[in-house]
Amino acid sequence: MFLILDALAAGEGKRLSSLDVIGAGPRAIAGVLEMFDLEYRIYRVEDYLRKGAGKFGVLLVSAMTMDEPVVRRVASRFKGIKIIGGPITSDPSIVPRLGFHLGVWGEGEVALESLLRRGLSVGKIPQDLEGVPNLITGDGVLTRVSNLSAEDLKRFRPSVSAVKFYRTIPHYRSSRVYVEVVRSCSNFNRPKIGVSEEMCDLCRACYEFDLSKRLLCPQGIPPGCGYCSIPALYGTPKSRDKDSVVEEVRGLAEMGVRRIVLSGADFLEYGRERLVNGPLTHPYEPGPNVNAIEELLKAIKELSWEYRFFFEVENVKPCLINDEVAEVLGRYLKGTAIHIGVETGDPEHADLLGRPCGPDESMKAIKKLREAGLRPYAYFIHSLPGQNDRVVKMTLRSMELAYRYGAEKITVYRFRPLPGTAFKGYDVIPDRGSKMIAEKAIELNRMRKRELLGAVIKVIVAPSVGKGSYAYPLAGGPVVKLRVRRRPKIGKVLEVKIIRVLSDRLVEGVPIRKGSS
């Protein structure tokens, strides 16, 4: 039997955030196993380490770079065949370092399918690995890199029934279940920090509209923003066909899922590759495929009325937001959260980082989306390469401007140098400016939370933590601590009145009437 361990964002062994997220990766793995009629179970890594599990012959771990500590503990405990995949394997040396037999690099569906056909389906490590793409051998050697075609993406279907294995935290009846609609990112610009300016001036590929020329860099700099590995790992964007997404969402709704996120590095990439001849390597030319976006949103909206679930989209690039796009998003997603990366408030710094758009475009996008009835969340990163006093000052100003333009939440991350990125070798040096950026986010978020006092919102009851009862706002927002005498049933929908701000991430609410489930 196969054991799939979801270690995504578990870090040292306990998730500290995103407690209501069920990612698409483990369900994608389960979908490949189901193609072969193989029996499997999915465990959160925390549950496996705390309770153990039955006898499994093959372990498949899905993890991020930050999850190395907890994955190390798992690898030392499990005695069967061990295979690891996910963003953590963007550094192939992780496979021998942690004692795994094999690893999967980047897109893993074809690699796993090939391994199963060659003997893994009966619990044996294949002897013949020649020709298996995106495979990392036990000594850390990557075979050959191959990105999925649009046809392959259509052929592989993430499992719907696998969601039933999430019965702790996150629990599938209350959590956001991610449904991948488009894979990768079209930003094939490169950062300009630590590169030869002379060679860049001679090449100019990052400034070209010739899509094929933008694929390769003579200096070997990975594509995309310097802190992001997505284009390097997954190639150019490719979208799932509408019918397969609708089928997956319908199946999840029939399983009892109440919150669905249509996910992708940028939701507005959906269908864009159909507008070009050749690889989609330009981040904003052509603009969004508005027809494809609207057809998908319309179909999901109709399903949401039928099955009574809530849905939202995740990230959008500011440079793809225009009046037409904002109107369409507002029509189908009014009242929902939507995430916009700003990262830095300095336009020169943004260009050095490889970003396709600057902070001014981000502010305009926040304003347009807010006016269209959405609730933008603005993302920033501190301690990035190139951060100086000017960058800090302008970033603080952009955070305040984003708040003034209606950003409901300001999220700040600490820069992490990731394998496979242009900034992989940089040290993280938080300074006084980094602290100021982090503190500004807390200040602005507390102010925004106070605006919720007295508001009545719909929430869905989450699994209990300790002695408290908690719920997640259906339309997004801070976690709500419930003031109740008895713990409500997980997945129950309530209307609550917000009575107190507990922190920049937590508020307290009291149910005002009997909810529906």
Keywords, separated by commas or semicolons:
21 strands, 517 residues, Rossmann fold, alpha/beta, five-stranded mixed barrel, OB fold (Dihydrolipoamide Acetyltransferase, E2P), pyruvate-formate lyase- activating enzyme, six-stranded mixed β-sheet, 31% helix
Summarize the helices and strands and which ones pair or pack:
Layout (H helix, E strand, L loop, with lengths): L1 E5 L14 E2 L2 H11 L4 E5 H7 L6 E5 L5 H10 L3 E5 L8 H5 L3 E3 L4 H9 L17 E2 L13 H6 L20 E5 L1 E2 L13 H7 L26 H5 L3 E2 L2 H14 L3 E5 L26 H18 L2 E4 L1 E2 L6 H11 L3 E7 L3 H7 L5 H13 L3 E8 L6 H16 L4 E6 L17 H19 L5 E6 L7 E5 L5 E4 L10 E9 L4 E8 L4
Parallel strand pairs: 1-3, 1-4, 2-8, 4-5, 5-6, 8-11, 11-12, 13-14, 14-15, 15-16, 19-21
Antiparallel strand pairs: 6-7, 9-10, 17-18, 17-20, 18-19, 20-21
Walk me through this protein's architecture.
The chain is of the alpha/beta class. It has three domains: 2-155, Rossmann fold, CATH 3.40.50; 171-450, tm_1862 like domain (pyruvate-formate lyase- activating enzyme); 456-513, Beta Barrel (OB fold (Dihydrolipoamide Acetyltransferase, E2P)). 31% of the residues lie in helices and 19% in strands. The chain has 15 helices and 21 strands. α1 (25-35) runs parallel beside α5 and α9 (242-255) packs parallel to α10. The longest helix has 19 residues, at 432-450. The mean pLDDT is 94.
